[in-house]
Automatic annotation (TrEMBL):
PANTHER family: SGNH HYDROLASE-TYPE ESTERASE DOMAIN-CONTAINING PROTEIN (PTHR30383:SF5), THIOESTERASE 1/PROTEASE 1/LYSOPHOSPHOLIPASE L1 (PTHR30383). Transmembrane segments: none annotated. This is SGNH/GDSL hydrolase family protein. Keywords: Hydrolase. Residues 11-200 form the SGNH hydrolase-type esterase domain. InterPro entries: Ester_Hydrolysis_Enzymes, SGNH_hydro, SGNH_hydro_sf.
Length: 215
């Protein structure tokens, strides 16, 4: 009997994607939204069609993704690539006036991001799903991050259009829910999602994945 070929769904990013995955086990999905997506696909009887791959690494910025893009993305020949990156690029800039909210910092982010997408497009027709980096206004000081993060969000959305990628606007989606239900229910530090926050990200991804087609 011929073995069924599974579509490879690759997720790459920072700690929001990593969520404690075992990096010694290439099949480890962590304990966040990627694992929740896998469970949802299993529950609806679709798990036999897909192989999920988590390549999130805590603390990563866009240049870190660039350094491992070939080994952790291109060489794996994924059918769908989902990327969520950017909040650490802002977080590391906080307090550094030379890069925080500067034109140069924004341009560097866009240059790296565009290079990643262009290099993948040259070698693959994989479907791209770009998820917008987000921050909650909790604790209070996180509000000041927006001046640096907002331009990066605009870049992700613009590049999604330029490279014919799916775009998931997580920031507005999550903040609207947080405003009603309490930001602390979605994140303890304004950045890392709670279990409920991860569930919302998984739901948003599944909705976009289904609406955009499975191939």
């Amino acid at each position: 009997m011929e073995k069924m070929t599974k579509y490879k769904l690759l997720f790459i990013g920072d700690s929001i994607t990593d969520v404690g995955r075992n990096r010694n086990n290439p099949d480890s999905l962590g304990k966040g939204y990627v694992a929740m997506i896998a469970k949802a696909l299993e529950d609806r009887g679709d798990s036999e069609h897909y192989q999920l791959i988590n390549r999130g690494i805590s603390g990563n910025r866009i240049h870190d993704i660039a350094e491992r893009w070939h080994s952790d993305c291109v060489s794996l020949e994924p059918d769908v690539v989902t990327m969520l990156i950017g909040i650490n690029d802002t977080w590391h800039n906080v307090g550094d006036e030379s890069v925080f909210a500067t034109k140069e910092g924004t341009e560097q982010f866009e240059m790296h991001y565009r290079h990643l997408l262009a290099s993948l497009r040259k070698k693959s027709d994989a479907r791209l799903i770009l998820m917008e980096p987000f921050v909650f206004p909790y604790p209070e000081d996180r509000k000041t991050w927006r001046i640096d993060l907002d331009p990066k969000q605009e870049i992700v959305k613009r590049l999604a259009e330029e490279f014919d990628a799916d775009w998931i606007g997580l920031d507005a989606y999550l903040n609207e829910i947080g405003a009603v239900e309490g930001y602390e229910t979605l994140s303890n530090d304004g950045v890392h999602p709670t279990k409920k926050g991860h569930r919302l990200i998984a739901d948003a991804w599944l909705k976009q994945f289904d609406e955009g087609g499975k191939e």
